Amino acid sequence: MDRVDGTDHYEGDKQGPGPSLLVIVLDTNPHAWALLNPTLPLSKAISNLLVFINAHLASHNANQVAVVASHCHRSVWLYPRPEPPSEDVEMKDNAPALNDANKYRPFALIEDSLLTSLRELISTTTENDISTTNTTQMAGSLTLALTYINKATLLFSDSNVTSEPMSTTLEGPENTTGLQSRILVISVSGDLAHQYIPIMNTTFAAQRMRVPIDILKLAGDTVFLQQASDTTKGIYMQLRNPQGLLQYLMMAFLPDQTSRKNLVAPTQEVVDFRAACFCHRKVVDVGFVCSICLSIFCSPSEGAICLTCSTHLALGDYGSKPAVVPRKKKKKRKLNGGVGTPSSRGGTPMPNE
Amino acid sequence: MSSSDEDYVADSDDDAGANQPSAKHGTRSSGPVKASGDAGGRKRAAWEDIQRSWDTIVEGADGSINSAVEGLREAGKRKRLLKDTTPLQRGIIRHLILIIDLSFAMVEKDLRPTRYLLTIRYASEFVTEYFEQNPISQLGIIGMRDGIAVRISDMSGNPTEHIEKLKGLREQQGQGNPSLQNALEMSRAALFHAPSHGTREILIIYGALLSSDPGDIHETIQSLITDRIRVSVVGLAAQVAICAELCKSTNAGDEGNYSVALNEQHFRELVMAITTPPVTRTKKQSQSSLLMMGFPSRTLGSGKTMSFCACHSKLSRGGYLCSRCNSKVCSLPAECPACGLTLILSTHLARSYHHLFPLKNWIEVPWSVAWSENSKACFSCLSKFPEIPKDVGADGEPRRKPGEHKGTSESSRYACEVCGNHFCIDCDVFAHEVAHNCPGCQGDTRAGEKDGIVRDGARGDGDVVMVG
Ligand SMILES: [Zn+2]
Ligand SMILES: [Zn+2]
Ligand SMILES: [Zn+2]
Ligand SMILES: [Zn+2]
Ligand SMILES: [Zn+2]
Ligand SMILES: [Zn+2]
Fewer CB atoms near the end CB (10 Å): N or C, chain A? Predict the structure, then answer.
């Protein structure tokens, strides 16, 4: 159809690749940074990151950046900053950094905003928040990053050549000239098994949108981030020397998708494809899979009932082949806005619903 | 057309409150269409189903149609969204070869824009849908042109690869004669290695009324039967005897797998119908069971010496190591040749998990709530909401905007009932159709829960949680 409306004509006119949007997910897990402190304190990592952000912004005049923090219990936007809920908290005290004549103003703005949000985030973290968990809200942060990219892509295609307005993300955008987005995760935490399903959901969403998820691992090891970067064709790097953070950022993570086609990107030697079981959130390499709903369990459940879909399952026949089963009856459509009951799988309702 | 008035009344139920008096006016008939000659299955012809977009537009208070267009767009997005996704059975492993006619017959323009382009578009949609419905299945694509069979994409479980290859076809045009026999023989070879526990299927999209074959196609059909391969054909022109015979004999006498598309919509329906796993005609309708499966890791093996794979005894560096016995296989899903463990990629399974734990629909936020919570920007994408009108009081019923559509929020805000955050329509659509996560629920676990397991519980898989 390109031939009909002559869009290739426009493409030919454009010089060079389009702008790119980089969304950085910064893992701010306090436990992990405390461990990392002797080699790479958070403050140093942030300053390295700012240099990297500036380099990204400098490489194309329309490049955009967004930073989201994946904290111990929540995901928070660091840049751009969400609007304060009440009007009276206006940022009238412009930081002196903004008036520094020696600094390119956009760089100063981002630096100021990022540091302010980060300070705010750290000061609002209670001791209770830290003591109750040792992981990070990676799934939430990735979801935030993806929604932001989705919105930015929609806005970009609206403001530029009027392409088909609807459902660009659903059919997999094939934009070579449009906004190119990617996600960079700077991860320090291990074990994300309890977020297995949401993380895999974001992974497939990113794959569908053709957004690569790059992982820069400073500490710890998670199976699912490896899978995320492998599925989305991103870069995965585990740093042996976190001190060299800036060097790695600049050399491996700065090129956008267009440039990467001409480079040999670092790859993972071994990709771990283990899964987390639904019953204990344990990472397993051999599991028991319900042939109806494909749930994974680490051991056959007692009573031979699938915990997810409540189907009675034949047991003992472990080596058996996948079987064809008559489809389940259709679920009744639930009316929107009605008092929600958990899905009609016959499960135990949650007390608060 | 006599029934069109009643039709309108029935429809206007749905659109209560919507100011679209002339919507669908008289262009839609709901009565049974007098089928012109051929069989049942037919609903209405394309020309009977015209919806004029300009009929549904109403001018806003300021005389512009911007708000109305915006409202319609939002209503459209929302309507698609409110459809409930029903968890379907997805356990089956299928192996399917899609054969596309790329011959001279595809240049015809009876399907718009051309048969060729439309087929490629529907084929891409088919690929996406096929992998959504059958996450651990395999697919390959073969084309028929110039009297030979062309391999378009190899058997694999990666939808993006197939779609890329299909996209490349768009640059070309249909030419030469199709050869059914060549294509079938090539598919037979491609399906030869498919493990016995999966299905072996061929779907042919056939535009031509002829086939130029090098030999006797009946022999090919015989060998298809021996290989337990089932063939379905979607014709674009008219019934062809050999296709009917092909479908009938490979489907144990069932003729339901051959159909001819009447129009674009029907064509799409026919193709999409194949994405549902087929019924088995084997003797024992085996019961549901718990399968033991391994999730092997992939190794590139660069720098190491080459070794033989256990499946084909070919020398290779990379591969997947069986999680039980460490034998190397070259592709997944597979059955470990040494210990018999079914090996699959866990990411293939995970692709369907959002069907198990669907994200609940979000609710519309009235102005009064938006006012009392003072929500200004979307929680996830930070885009600003429309200003809260000044004339809204905590009590006051706000003035309604003209051209309001049912199902859309008057304040353009949508709220997740679990976490209570407000989102914009784009994030609503995105979260429900693509991400299947609520950014708010995933983004904040301080609200009383101790760990992530309970977190998931809030999304509806309560039973898993409560048992544990
Ligand atoms: Zn378990
Ligand atoms: Zn189940
Ligand atoms: Zn092999
Ligand atoms: Zn084995
Ligand atoms: Zn939004
Ligand atoms: Zn929520």
Answer: N
Q: Which of B212, B262, B256, B214 is nearest to B233 (CA)?
A: B256
Rounded to two decimals, the pTM is 0.68
Q: Quick check: A96 contacting B, CB < 8 Å?
A: no
d(CA A22, CA A149): 9
Residues near B409 by Cβ (< 8 Å), separated by ≥ 6? B364, B365, B366, B425
Contact check, Cβ <8 Å, B289/A313: yes
Question: What type of residue sits at position A299?
Answer: S
Beta-bridge partners for A185? A25, A215
**Token digits of residue A77:** 């936007």
Looking at CATH, the fold of the domain delimited by B363-449 is given as: Herpes Virus-1 (3.30.40)
**Residue A203 near residue A228 (C-beta atoms within 8 A):** yes
Are the beta carbons of A337 and B431 separated by less than 8 Å?
no
One domain, residues A236 and A220 = yes
Q: With an 8 Å Cβ cutoff, is A274 touching chain B? A: yes
Q: Which domain holds residue A305?
A: 275-322+346-353
Q: Are B144 and B99 in contact (CB under 8 A)?
A: yes
Q: How many whole angstroms from B90 Cα to the centroid of ligand 1?
A: 21
Which among A83, A197, A279 has CB closest to B357?
Answer: A197
Q: Do domains B94-281 and B363-449 have the same CATH topology?
A: no
* Alpha carbons B30 and B28: distance in angstroms, whole number: 6
ipTM reported for the complex, 2 dp? 0.77
Task: Please check whether residues A291 and A269 belong to one and the same domain.
Answer: no
For chain B, percent helix, then strand, then coil, each to nearest 5? Answer: 35, 15, 50
Contact A199, A187 (CB under 8 A): no
Domains of chain A: total? 2
Signed CA dihedral, B124, B128, B133, B134: sign only: positive
Percentage helix, strand, coil for chain A under 3-state DSSP, each rounded to 5: 35, 15, 50
- Name the token pair of B454: 């309970």
Do residues A236 and A102 both lie within one domain?
A: yes
- Per-run averaged pLDDT (10 residues), chain B, 468 residues: 41 40 40 43 56 56 62 63 47 82 91 90 91 79 93 84 90 91 93 75 92 92 90 92 91 85 88 77 50 84 76 82 86 79 82 77 84 83 80 50 56 86 89 87 64 37 33
Homologous superfamily (CATH) for B94-281: von Willebrand factor, type A domain (3.40.50.410)
**A157 and A286 share one domain:** no
Instruction: Tell me how many degrees the CA angle A143-B157-A184 measures, rounded to the nearest 5.
Output: 30
A247-293, pLDDT tens digit by residue?
A: 999 988 998 888 888 888 787 778 888 888 888 888 888 888 876 67
CB-CB contact of B328 with A257 (8 Å): no
Q: Tell me the two tokens of residue A240.
A: 């042996």
The answer to whether A90 touches A77, Cβ cutoff 8 Å, is: no
Domain range annotation of chain B: 94-281, 294-345, 363-449
Q: Name the residue with tokens 């790059």.
A: A214
**Residue A52 belongs to some domain of the structure:** yes
* B384 → chain A, closest CA residue: A83
Residues A235 and A296 in one domain: no
Q: Are residues A105 and A219 in the same domain?
A: yes
Is there a contact between A337 and B436 if contact means CB atoms under 8 Å apart? no
Q: Please check whether residue A65 lies inside any domain of the structure.
A: yes
Asked if residue A167 belongs to a domain, the reply is: yes
Residue A149 lies in a domain: yes
For the record, the structure tokens of A17 come out as 């690749």
Task: Return phi, psi of residue A302, to 5°.
Answer: -75, 150
Where is A129: in which H helix or E strand?
A: helix A127-131
- Both tokens of residue A319? 């080596």
Model confidence pLDDT, tens digit, residues A201-233 = 999 899 888 899 999 998 888 888 988 998 888
For the packed helices B115-133 and B264-273, what is the interaxial angle rounded to 10 degrees? 30
Whether the CB-CB separation of A81 and A134 falls below 8 Å is answered with no
